[in-house]
Amino acid sequence: MADYVIQPAPETTIPVRGEAGVFPVRRIWCVGRNYADHAREMGHDPDREPPFFFSKPANAAVPGGTLPFPGETKDFHHEVELVAALAKGGKDIPQDQALDCVYGYAIGLDMTRRDIQAEAKKMGRPWELSKGFDQSCPISEIVPASVIGHPTQGKIEVTVNGRVQQTGDMNQMIWSLPEAIAYLSRYVELLPGDLIMTGTPAGVSAVKPGDVLHGTCEGVGEITVTYAG
């Protein structure tokens, strides 16, 4: 075992339904603008341009429950997404072999400081502080694909204080999960523990202190997050 000059940070893990063991998180990759209606609401053409990706650090992944409202934002948004958890990876993964890499699925929230993101875009700067901040990825337990298969359709939705805010169907993705995995693996080597967030439907909106978010993904699971003041 290696000796460390400082104590390493705890490993980020996610519970797995029906298992005593947990899933170790390596990296979090997010597919941007992968639902046409969301692309339109963000002011972009939803034509099938090549996919693009951004990332969040592993420790952005946290369970549901009560979370602190983040600082340095006046426009804090929710984005509900299907999440794929990889058991293996590689480079230049063929599309017809991509799903062999998937261990299971969860539902997650890509929480976004929209005002910081907008300013970064305007100034041609990176998005990290808008997307990769602490606790920016609440995520449910993972359900193994051996239990539920590989979902390609079904409602994905989030309510805010009981009111439906985002709703869509997984079959509305512009780029399917196998396509996204194959494309991303041309640029980086995917490895066990990587998470892929597959994009969000239209309806993103601001979250305020005290709001309760409840996300559901048909056949996969649910998550509830309350933002404290």
From TrEMBL:
One Pfam match: FAA_hydrolase
Give the molecular function GO annotations: hydrolase activity
Q: Which UniProt keywords apply?
A: Hydrolase, Metal-binding
Domain named Fumarylacetoacetase-like C-terminal: which ranges? 28-225
SUPFAM superfamilies cross-referenced by the UniProt entry: FAH
Per the record, the domain of life is Bacteria
Say yes or no: keyword Signal present. Answer: no
UniProt xrefs under InterPro entries: Fumarylacetoacetase-like_C (IPR011234), Fumarylacetoacetase_C_sf (IPR036663)
Q: What is this protein called?
A: Fumarylacetoacetate hydrolase family protein
Q: What is the source species?
A: Roseomonas haemaphysalidis
The lineage is: Bacteria, Pseudomonadati, Pseudomonadota, Alphaproteobacteria, Acetobacterales
